[in-house]
Amino acid sequence: MEQLLAALFQLFEPTHLAFLFAGTLLGLIVGILPGMGGTSGLALVLPFVFTMEPSHALAMMIGVLAPTTTSDTFPAVLMGVPGTSGSQATVMDGFPLSKKGMAARALSAAFSASLLGGVFGALILSISIYYAIPIIMAFGFGEQFLLVVLALLMVGALTGDNLFKGIASCFLGLIIGSIGTAPITGDPRYTFDTLYLLEGVPLVVVGLGLFAIPEIVGLLDAKGSIAKSLNTKKGWFTGLKDVVKNWFLVLRCSTLGCLVGALPGLGGTVVDWIAYSHLKQTTKDTSQFGKGDIRGVIAPESANNAKEGGALIPTLIFGIPGSGNKVLLLGGFVLIGIEPGLDMVTTNLDLTYLMIWSLAIANILGAGICMGFSSQISKFTLVPYYILAPVMVCLIFFATFNFNRDWYDFIGLMSFGLIGITFKNFGWSRPALLIGFFLSTKVELLSYQTQAVYGLSFLTRPVSIILIILCLATIVLLTKQKFDKYYRSDFVKGKLTQIYYNIILLCLPLSMIWFTINLDYRANLFPISLSLIAFFLLIFILIVKIADLKNLSFLNYTLIKFARSNIFEIGGNFKIQIYYYLSFIGFLLMNFIFGFPIAAALFINLFILFHNKKAYVSSICISAALMVILWLLSSLLTLQFPNGLIGLFIDLPWWLGGQLN
Amino acid sequence: MSLFSFVSVASADVNFSGKTITWVVPFKEGGGTSRFARFIQPFLKKYLPGNPDVQIMHIPGGGAIKGSNYFEKNAKADGTFIFGCSTSVIVNVATGNPLVKYNLSEYRPVVLLPQNTHWFTRSDLAEPHDLSKIKERKLALYALKTPASADLFHIWIYDKLGIKGAKPIPGLSSSGGYQAFLRGEIHLSSHGAANYVKKVKPEIAKGKVVDLMTLGIIGADGSVSRNPLAPNAPTFPEMYEKVNGKKLEGDDLEAYYAIAAAWSQASKAMMLPKDASDEIVKAYRDAAIKMTKDPEFKAKAEKALGPFPLIIGEEAGEIIKKAAVFSDTTKKQLNAALKKHKFTYRVQ
What we know:
Chain A is mostly helical. Chain A has 31 helices and two strands. Classes of the chains: A mainly alpha, B alpha/beta.
């Protein structure tokens, strides 16, 4: 109790509040940008947190995570596009309300529901911390192994539009994660004798590549500004009253959100739909759902903020992430030197409480800002993307470089960017790939550790049995709910491209087997088993795809029917997205020649002027502001930006890429 | 005026006034070596002649090899570059990692920060300070991060103490390993001094955990004394004698000294490049000695750096040589232990 209050006082020190506030603002912004969410936001701050004190860094990271599911309501309600995956269900009734001219009511109801849900989640988290020690002690290697495997399966099964493609994505992630030094023997795997691959590609680079780049490219493809017009003036009070009237619904959905969030692997991807269907099942008059029922906004919004508190439970005590953003949060923990587990509820309890308070306060702050400045913030959805995009690309490059100060990371970033774009367009699951990548080493080590301590007997331990039953039941229930209903591959164009892509994906497991087959069995057992499973999954998916294309008769078997739903993805305009991607490569080349600061200024000007020749005032102002910020950062952090070739010929200031004095 | 400055130069012809000193740390911000550097940084500015700015440059990657190689290649010998070293940097050299391009044993150390290792077990498995019950066990599991790290020394230690059932569980960090130890999944565990005080002592007080031994504190003359944090626990040489019935000597003693130098005495270090002149080295060492007398340093050092006094001076150079260059017999000993546990990794 003492520590609980001490943590609160610590948080109210000006510096802590400042970091929390900065994080919250960033979280709000990435929440508004459709597609970007907590994962992209965290990936952006992660390269900077390790220069901070742990408590500051934690406040900032939680600040980024907490309010994304608050501000994502703006695009969901105003444009009918979910800002993050957590607000998909909000669109169902939020957008119709907005079309009826009741946008303000929907927004205020959503924000206050978010606030209540978020604080409730923090409360549950602080209570469960008290009971964490016996749980941690009951989870040995075997239980942890099961937990990780089942978390992977659940993420794979539930984050994709197609069950099998989701699970295959997970295995591909596991295979990529096994690149580098084999943890048992120290043999290099799939490294082609490079020092860079020996350590494996850094998590931050993978996160930025997989999530940030595809979203930017996708939004450029969608063209124009995000929203067309705004009307958020009247009806704020009505929204508040709606929430007060439906307080019991808020409470139920918050509890639901917490529980679903705490199940490792489920995380935030389905929680809004679960809350929405709970609402439907418990309401008598369902006639207005989908047409603008305010309860359809309140239910998912209270659940998706509450889930953060729940999701932090497995993250903090087992180090097992439930969603993409928790993967990066754990990456942040490593950077600032805290290890999840027993320490979080004993020696580092103060930090845990600090996170809980940060979570509660960030939710209040986020909702407060959204309500107080709603008309200003919603204007954010009016900024044309051709202005936002180059700035974000520069930010991503800067973040990537700052992480390791290594040129190779740019190559890693662009490679994973390409994987991200293709995965998104062809309907493979990026969260599953990221979680597989992150947990790969853990799975490998836990399998050895479990084997050494228990053999197979771990399966008969009571906690293991409960885990298996619990997770299998969830998977069966949720997949039924999610996949039974719709099949939509009739309108897909370019099926052949997606089939070719499937064949390209086959190269990864095959080459992994080829390069590791001659190693010691303790070094290659893991990647080869993974590769074999991935190979057969991919072949199966390929067959289903070809059968779908040719309309073969065996499609009528139940399993095949099930596998066929969403086997193809209706992506955006893939070609245009690739053009934009290539322009980023152009930026990378400019970096090699001019160094980062000059290249960034050039790129911003070129990019904006290419789209709109009249926008030179914005382009010059933005690039000038960026240069000032870079110069300040350089002197504050003694940071040398990536220097280009011209630094060899022209005498430049140090921060522009000149020689070290 | 010119006369005055001429006189003062005689005592300090090294002057860093207006210069910036770059302290290369081959690890991420926030790690132990980074914390060590950040703690020393303000004192260095205060006591080096000319009060130069000291900036810490983190170059993580490649198991500390990237930053260390960078230092070897780019550091100037004029005293404006210093290097933050740690056990893993030393182990990379001592075990002959082929990617290493830095010649650590010729560097000029300024300050060494010693550490010490404590071994302990659960109270239901053994009496305090007594290995006999552990030795009877068929299986005595312990945590091992990777055989290419300093954890390699555990394999040798348990081997020399004749614990036949000792079996490493790979891939466990020291804190992950300690958690598994508390859950009862592994039997032997160890911690450095700081975590020993913070995490293990409370469990000993509860009667759940008992001390086995410590690595021991090595004096300038090679004598080994007990660790003041666990004064009743025997040191490794004492335990060796008790178990084997003979004094620790010969090849075993040589290997012990090498291991203790790398693992314990030079746990963290601040070094100058190999070509740094004697004047520069002296200026740094003087600054370090002044630092240890600073009241602010005295007040904060125990909490920030641990209970063991810094090693400054020529003695430090000897320790680094011992730690960074393992003799062939020591390597043979380590490889024999590795082979026994079926590791493919070998010390080169």
